[in-house]
Amino acid sequence: DAGITQSPRHKVTETGTPVTLRCHQTENHRYMYWYRQDPGHGLRLIHYSYGVKDTDKGEVSDGYSVSRSKTEDFLLTLESATSSQTSVYFCAIKGLAGGLTDTQYFGPGTRLTVL
Amino acid sequence: AQSVTQLGSHVSVSEGALVLLRCNYSSSVPPYLFWYVQYPNQGLQLLLKYTSAATLVKGINGFEAEFKKSETSFHLTKPSAHMSDAAEYFCAVRTAYGQNFVFGPGTRLSVLP
Predict the structure, then answer these.
(1) Torsion angles phi and psi, residue A23, rounded to 5
(2) Contact A100/B46, CB-based, under 8 Å?
(3) Residues of A in contact with B89 (CB under 8 A)
(4) To probe the interface with B, which of A32, A50, A100 has the most B CB atoms within 10 Å?
């Protein structure tokens, strides 16, 4: 257990509304990631963070923003949700297992439906 | 740029049969390779990882994978499938000097009684 929680676990919202998803970790990991999972695409990186206030874009960042004001929390915001953002969202942290041999550990996911 | 392909979006095997899930990667530098498993409505769980030590890597639940540089492959195998192995499996790659992971599209494994 890497101590990762996501909230909410399920959310239904309407097109055009703002949505914020929260990822919380308890083990002080530096790197945190947001992915979306869609059938046939595997996991695609939205944004990641390499420290407090340090974030960067991933493969599918359009329409998403992130913030990290504390080590333990990484927030993903959809400023104006669209139906194409209906997906399952996973948060991950990168834990250290000696040198460069670190590994990602995942949260339980948030299922978001945009109507 | 790194990429991962997984041949076969859906694989079916009989209980007790060999499981073989294919993963090929492209990377311009030595890769670190991972297999994850996802059970329905759950997050991803690490099965095993290759980090440039032994080329044959053993993971949890009886799975293993072999890194073959000449074939740029990291196929996942299990000698005898169990009903509880039914899940989706993802291969992922990360470079030794990068911080990001690239995932394949996944292979759904069904185990038939």
Answers:
(1) -120, 130
(2) no
(3) none
(4) A100
Residue bearing tokens 């038939």 = B112
Question: Which positions 31-50 of A are in contact with B (Cβ < 8 Å)?
Answer: 31, 33, 35, 40-45, 48, 50
Sheet with strand A64-70: strands edge to edge: A4-7, A19-25, A73-78, A64-70
Q: Are B43 and B92 in contact (CB under 8 A)?
A: no
- B104 CB neighbours in chain A (<8 A) are 42
- Is the dihedral angle over the CA atoms A98, B87, B57, B92 positive or is it negative? negative
DSSP 8-state class, residue B18: P
- What pLDDT, in 10s, does the model give residues B50-62? 887 788 999 999 9
Q: A19-77 pLDDT, tens per residue? A: 999 999 988 888 999 999 998 888 999 999 988 999 999 989 999 999 999 999 999 99
Which of the residues B100, B102, B107, B108 would you substitute to probe the A interface, choosing the one with the greatest number of A C-beta atoms within 10 Å?
A: B100
Q: How far does A17 lie from chain B, in Å, by closest CA? A: 25
| Cβ partners under 8 Å of residue B61, min gap 6 | B37, B47, B78, B84, B85
